[in-house]
Amino acid sequence: MEPGSLTLPHLDDGDLLCLLDGEADAASHHDAAAHLRACPACRERMERYRTRRDRLAQLLARADFPVPASAAPPSASKDADDAKVIPLRPRAAPARVVNRPWLRAAAVVLLLIAAAAVATPARAWIAAWIGRQVDRVTHESQPAPQRPRVVQTPAPPVAPQPSAQVRFVPGGGELRVDVAHTQASGALTLVRVDGPAASAEVVGPQSVELLVVPSGLRIRNTAAASADYRVQVPDGVRRVHVRIGGGRETVVDRAEIESAGRTIPLAPR
Amino acid sequence: MDAAGLFAEHHPPLFRYLSRLTGDPDVAEDAAQEAFVRLMERPPAPGETRAWLFRVGTNAAWMALRTRGRRKRLLDAAPERVPLGDAPPAPDVQAESAETRARVRAALEGLSERDRTILLMQQEGFRYREIAEAVGTTTQSVGTMIARALTKLAAELRLDEEDGWNPDR
């Protein structure tokens, strides 16, 4: 411990947690950080809290219940929900379907108009389906077998598009960014954003995939790539763990991102 | 308001938090639904949706647990009134994580309502200001309360022991 720090009182538990969670204001952060540098006992206590917090997060995640698959947004009005009548008797038999060929033909014409506005790949399929319906209707209503011809235009080949941008909500206060390889050049930049959602994007014309995985984000790059990546880290994330090419993990605290963003080079040193 | 978008964004973390808070996925789902219903009836200011949903969900969950507790006490006092056809245990209760879940649950139950809420909101990444507003305390005291709750859980769950905390080892 430095001689000048001997007179400083130890940090209390609340101060340590504020530091750990990036909640200390600038002045107290400066004083507390100075004390920590000089006081191994407080450093050890802070590390103990960090370990407890991280291990608890792991235990909680392991004990979580799965999110119900049937979860759906509630209707706009609770009163409307309350007023819903649940029949206790068997439902009446469904009404008889009225078979009117002219009505079906009119519906088909409307569908044809709608199909014309649809994008090219779907248009061919819809046109073919409608063609079959038109065939059926004309066969039923007009005995003359004048089949309308539907020319199917093959859908143009679609080039695989790399996911240039993704948006997601990280679970809990930790975000992991896993970069598959070190690159020829380029960097990963972490910047802070308001709100709960994170986003990531590839900066540059590279075919790199961004995948959202349970732990956070995976960047599927190659060793020859030279793209830059920009990850917007939301309010709720306290720390970002970055691993490049399976190497050592770099941990970035919220405070570092808040000040000016943090850039991590992806080229091997 | 994009109700479906808000639901997709906020429901999974809200349900996770409420099920950790209550230990009961049914209560958690009901409380989450209640929070979303109120969101559509009286939406909060923009930018406060997430904290608002968690605050309303927390209140709804505690209220449901208290009601359930009263009902259980009544039924315990008159066992002949226990309704038939209780729900069977959920399949996931029988899964491998059941032991971990029970252990974590018991430890969380040992905390006061307020300490549990504060600790679990911290785990969800909320700012101390938002946590303080949710439980009605000062921002300055949140760190101390988290430290106290963590210390208590560390003893229950052996978080300080290298080999003791992890049930998979």
Q: Can you tell me about this structure?
A:
The complex is a heterodimer of chains A (269) and B (169). Chain A is built from seven helices and ten strands. Chain A has helices at 13-20, 26-38, 40-63, 78-82, 101-116, 120-141, 254-260, and strands at 165-168, 174-179, 187-193, 198-203, 209-213, 216-220, 228-234, 239-244, 249-253, 262-265. In chain A, the strands form two sheets. Chain A has a five-stranded mixed β-sheet. A five-stranded mixed β-sheet of chain A has the order 5-6-2-8-9. In chain A, helix 1 packs across helix 3, helix 2 packs across helix 3 and helix 5 packs antiparallel against helix 6 (120-141). Chain A is elongated, with a radius of gyration of 31 Å. The two termini of chain A are 34 Å apart. With 169 residues, chain B is mainly α. Chain B contains seven helices and no strands. Chain B has helices at residues 3-22, 25-41, 49-77, 98-109, 113-123, 128-135, 139-157. Chain B is globular, with a radius of gyration of 18 Å. The interface between A and B is large, with 47 and 58 residues.
Structural class of chain A: alpha/beta
| Shape type of chain A | elongated
Helix fraction bin of chain A: 25-40%
Total beta strand runs of chain A: 10
Which structural class should the secondary elements of chain B be placed in?
Answer: mainly alpha
Task: Report how far apart the termini of chain A are.
Answer: 34 Å
What are the SSEs and their pairings?
The complex is a heterodimer of chains A (269) and B (169).
Chain A lengths: L12 H8 L5 H13 L1 H24 L14 H5 L18 H16 L3 H22 L23 E4 L5 E6 L7 E7 L4 E6 L5 E5 L2 E5 L7 E7 L4 E6 L4 E5 H7 L1 E4 L4
Parallel strand pairs in A: 2-6, 2-8, 3-7
Antiparallel strand pairs in A: 1-4, 3-10, 4-7, 5-6, 8-9
Helix pairs in contact in A: 1-3, 2-3, 5-6
Chain B lengths: L2 H20 L2 H17 L7 H29 L20 H12 L3 H11 L4 H8 L3 H19 L12
Helix pairs in contact in B: 1-2, 1-3, 2-3, 3-6, 4-7, 5-6, 5-7, 6-7
